[in-house]
Design a protein that fits this description.
Strand order of the largest sheet of chain A: 6-7-8-3-9-10
CATH superfamily of one domain in chain A: P-loop containing nucleotide triphosphate hydrolases
Order of helices and strands of chain A: EEEHEEHEHHHEHEHEEHH
Order of helices and strands of chain B: HHHHHHHHH
Radius of gyration of chain B: 21 Å
Oligomer: heterodimer
Number of domains of chain B: 1
Shape of chain A: globular
CATH architecture of one domain in chain A: 3-Layer(aba) Sandwich
Strand content of chain A: 15-25%
Number of helices of chain B: 9
Helix content of chain B: over 70%
Shape of chain B: elongated
CATH class of one domain in chain A: Alpha Beta
Structural class of chain A: alpha/beta
């Protein structure tokens, strides 16, 4: 049985259909990457899984429990099992780095500040940041360091599921590769199930056990990461090789 | 025909916006009364909204009291009504100008700051991050701000009342040559407890409106820097208009 499952998820904004019946399964302990271009519905799908957006139809199951439309304590319980790395890190400007990492432990779980700080420092060290960084403000960090802090925050609560939203966007290739490596190591170390969305093929190849290609709100292909180059799908092929000619270009041109 | 369509659209969107604000506020209040309570945040917001607004509120009140005294003198001189300056300044400041000016000053300073802060948090995914960290943003961001303003605005108004009356006193005694003891006596004779409490109740309502508008427009901002700018402007305009409109309603209720 799949650890996380999406069944017939539909989402629209006004007349625009963003998700058009998404069916997807993620095995426990595996890492799935959703590939797709800008506007393909990747972020909306992630937000539907997290409960930040509500699908009009279909649902999301995590560990055998439907999470769509959960409220109050039941929702907080599910969220406490989730770690999320946002595209722009989304660190709280007003808090110091260690307070950002410890935020979920202190506010969400009521852990004493001293104990939470100790864990935060440990998590920062696990992503290659020293204790001194903990006392800085997010604005004093580089983009790569902010992503590391966001990763430390995501794993602070030892989550069962990790979500990564465009983890390497805005980073130089070397920093991006370091973040990818950190993600792989971290996911293995905490034994979490991971779902990432990206349009960075190199990042996807590094992070993923399996890859799914999302295009215009539909999953066009889903398979082992190692078989990405032999997908036999012309959309996937065009996207992977970054060709300007192909069905994706034709569709965009029609728009 | 086009004008009627435009008018209808405007009216409908005004109703829609009012409905959204009501839903937002009822959600905030409903969730805000449930634990956990963020006391540290409440104190921090009381400091930011109350203490940091003191200079601007005090200066505005002082000069308004001073100008009021001068205007009454110039207007009332021909009828030999200098003696009523103290009482009119006291009543005008405590009943109307103290709470309204404190409210407007705080609206300009605080409502804009809240809308900008929450708007930036919205467009940089920080509010979504709060949710994923099992923290309800209505409890964590909205409720402490609203409660802080409701608690500190009446205190700011008391300060504005005292300094506004002091402004009138300074002009009356220093510029117009009134006897200080008689001025103070006139002030105290005409001032009643209800004048001060009505101003405090008004300012508590203004505090609620100011922070509610800041939180609502910030929380619902979208579209990057331009969206945050729009949210800030909307928050200040809406809270200023609501202060003036609610002041009329409250005055009608208290003094009818």
């Amino acid at each position: 049985m799949a650890f996380m499952e999406l069944k017939g998820v539909h989402k629209r904004f006004g007349e625009k259909i963003v998700l058009d019946g998404i069916d997807l399964e993620v095995e426990r302990g595996s890492s799935l990457v959703i590939l797709g271009g800008s506007g393909s519905g990747k972020s909306v799908m992630l937000r539907c899984i997290l409960g930040l957006l509500h699908p009009e139809d279909g649902g999301v199951w995590i560990d055998g429990r439907e999470t769509t439309g959960l409220r109050g304590r039941a929702r907080e319980e599910i969220l406490s099992r989730i770690g999320m790395l946002f595209q722009n890190a989304a660190l709280f400007d007003s808090l110091r780095v260690w307070e950002n990492v410890a935020f979920g432990l202190i506010q969400g779980r009521g852990m004493p500040s001293r104990q939470a700080k100790k864990i935060a420092i440990e998590k920062l060290e696990s992503v290659g940041l020293g204790e001194m960084v903990g006392e800085l403000r997010p604005s004093e960090l580089s983009g790569g360091m902010q992503k590391r802090v966001a990763l430390a925050r995501a794993i602070a609560g030892d989550p069962d599921i990790l979500f990564f939203d465009e983890p390497t966007t805005g980073l130089d290739p070397i920093t991006g590769a370091i973040i990818d490596r950190l993600i792989v190591d971290t996911v293995k170390r905490v034994g979490a199930t991971a779902l990432s969305i990206t349009h960075d093929i190199n990042s996807a190849r590094t992070i993923a056990d399996k890859i799914a290609m999302l295009y215009k709100g539909r999953i066009l292909w889903h398979g082992e990461a190692a078989r990405l180059d032999e997908s036999g799908n012309e959309y996937v092929d065009q996207f992977v090789h970054g060709r300007t000619e192909g069905p994706i270009e034709m569709e965009l041109y029609k728009l | 025909m086009r004008f009627i369509i435009l008018l209808g659209d405007t009216i409908l969107s005004a109703f829609r916006e009012t409905g959204r604000i009501c839903v937002f506020l009822s959600k905030s209040l409903f969730l805000g009364i449930q634990p956990p309570y963020f006391w540290k945040l409440l104190l921090s917001q009381m400091f930011r909204i109350g203490y940091l607004s003191l200079p601007v509120v005090a200066l505005t009140a002082f000069f308004t009291g001073a100008v009021l005294a001068l205007q009454i003198y110039y207007g009332g001189n021909q009828f030999n009504s200098e003696s009523i300056i103290a009482s009119i300044v006291a009543l005008g400041i405590t009943r109307e100008l103290g709470p309204v000016l404190a409210g407007l000053m705080v609206a300009g300073r605080v409502s804009a700051a809240i809308a900008a802060e929450l708007g930036t948090m919205r467009v940089t995914d920080q509010i979504d991050a709060l949710v994923t960290l099992s923290t309800n943003p209505f409890k964590y961001l909205v409720m402490p701000r609203i409660l802080a303003a409701v608690l500190v605005l009446p205190l700011l108004t008391i300060v504005a009342d005292v300094i506004g009356i002091l402004g009138g006193f300074a002009v009356g005694v220093e510029n117009l040559g009134f006897n200080p003891s008689i001025y103070v006596q006139n002030t105290l004779d005409f001032l009643e407890r209800d004048d001060i409490t009505s101003g405090m109740i008004k300012s508590a309502v203004f505090g609620f409106l100011i922070t509610s508008m800041g939180c609502y427009y910030g929380f619902n901002s979208s579209g990057g820097a331009q969206g945050v700018g729009r949210a800030t402007t909307n928050a200040v305009v809406a809270s200023s208009i609501l202060i003036l409109a609610s002041n009329y309603i409250l005055t009608s209720v208290f003094f009818s």
